[in-house]
User: What shape does this take?
Amino acid sequence: MALPSYTETRYRIWHYIYIAICTFVFFFLIAPLFVIFPLSFNAEEFLVFSEGMKNLDPDAFSLRWYKDMIYGTKNPWGLAAQNSFIIAIFATIGSIILGTLAALGLSSRHMPYKGIIMATLISPMIVPLIISGVAIFFFMAKVGLAATHTGIVLAHIILGTPFVVITVTATLSGFDHSVTRAAASLGSNPVNTFMKITLPLILPGVISGGLFAFVTSFDEVVVVLFLAGLENTTIPIQMWTGLREQLSPTILAVATCLIILSTLILISAELLRRRSERLRGINR
Amino acid sequence: MSSETKQILTTDGIPLEVSLKKAEKKNKIKAFLLVAPLLLFLIITYVFPIGEMFSRSIDDKMITNMLPKTFNEMEKWDGQELPPEEVFAAFYYDFKVLVEKQEHGKLGQRLNKEKNGFNSITKKLFRQVKRKKIDESIGIKEQIMAIHKRWRNVEYWQAIKRTAPPYTMAKYLKGMDMYYAADGSIVQVEEDRRIHRILWLRTLEIALLVTIFCFLMGYPIAHLLATLPMKYSNLLMICVLLPFWTSLLVRTASWMILLQQQGVVNDFFVMIGLVSDDSRPEMMYNKVGTYVAMTQILLPFMVLPLYSVMKTISPSLMRAGKSLGGTPFVAFWKVYFPLTIPGIGAGCLLVFILAIGYYITPALVGGASGTLISNQIAYHMKTTLDWSFASAMGLMLLTGVLVVYWIYNKLVGVDNIKLG
Assistant: This one.
């Protein structure tokens, strides 16, 4: 952002103020995440930087909270992680299947009542989670699925499908329908055409929608708080209880692992987005 | 007729128009069948349950079923003077059934909500019925009135009459700090007990201010991201996307660490001499914490729509504005800013909708003065177990959100939501 040499002084000043504001905002966005890393290696039990840590004394750092997270007696993280992954994986699969089918239908120009149906399908993303939580809880309690994995998976499919619908519809918006017609004219049946032609082309959109659904499920706490029993505890529930009750540095160790996980997801989402743009022929 | 002679036929002799319509219909059904599984799933597990919240919130059938004879007789009573013997007798026989089913306690609690003092007089009546002290062969009215003076007070009978309809709006009134008075009119609760109104206003205030903060912080960086060369902006975009993908609880945890009294922010303030070490300000468990944490958490939802709009604005427009004699400020204000309004609308509405229903972050960093309406709903769902009141409040909140959603849909269109 070099300024042209003829810029007047007052605009120069404005420009530097603008850069300063932007730097501050970027710092505000990203810095809070980095405070967790060093503190998770704290040798002491408090969530503040000890004198030793400020002086970079090696004795002030330790891996004890990571050990506690993995081997600690009576610690809930193992079960929570297992539950979280199982629930998130099934919820993602369900969201992908239902969401992709719906997106295919919605992208057809023959679709009747497109506006109202789209609004209904997206609504779980817009309706405040607390209301979704109450409504889904009433339903699951009535059909006897409260405090079961199945109930939570179904709830997370509800919350996850809007993301799949949005990303796949976006991918399909640049989709060249003549390729499927070409396949049909060459004698391919619709299922075959979908598996061999359409799916590979929209796959980046499907997967990135799936990533959203996965993260939504993996990070979801409001609805799970209503639905989960002791057996169905998840990582977000454990973090929630931990943050409310005893704020132990083990939580920071878990948080560090979650940040690493989200970095990996971010990288894959970025790569997918670029691949999708390449496939759709959008060049920038 | 000319139209028939002009009609084009397909090879099998069917008019082309009919054949096309048939094909069109087939395509419509095909498209609809693809959407149907998800639509059906959502309607059963999501849309209906929300509707059920509504029937639950106005449901008052319990007492209607408890006192069937009484309400039947009460239809003939004008509600001005003490009710006649028949009403007393009907009430007595209804009550006797409830005593046999051991449900008289529920009736007392329900009536007590309608008018204070019912709980004790139904208990007194219960003891008389249990000991079979009431002689059914003579006038029941006199005997009931003798049990307690409140049974002689017409206001208590009016209160019973008011509970007759199987539906009530009482929970909605309660959500707005109002209630039904003895004569059935709607009155407001005393000034110092209007807790819900404070919560609604606070929710609105926090959602609006967070939206404004997000706009003020998001606009400059979205502009920077959209105007920088690709290789730099991609790098900076990570600063927006990494928090976006990171767990909400992790981000809230990091703010709890930063804002606590011995936390990094306070350390920094002490270091630069802004505050002294022994008077560190409380920045968490109050509104400040809620504002700061929610702004950071929702900022990506402002930046992403703004960025996607700004990306489409050609830089030559600004140059044209300047070359036509506008100063950079004029060019920005008259050319660039109006073009970004769709993005501003999308971002602000998205952030506002998300902020107004926020629950987790305010509950953790907000303390007592930072709690929102969502926290109140959760409290009634989990602690007081007043599910119908929680449903009523939830639907009031939902109505507000749907209005904003509708505006959003009109202005931006839900299919234009961009993610990442």
User: Anything to note?
Assistant: Chain A touches chain B through 92 residues (CB under 8 Å). Residues 19 and 138 of chain A are 51 Å apart (CA to CA). Chain A has two domains: 9-66, 79-247.
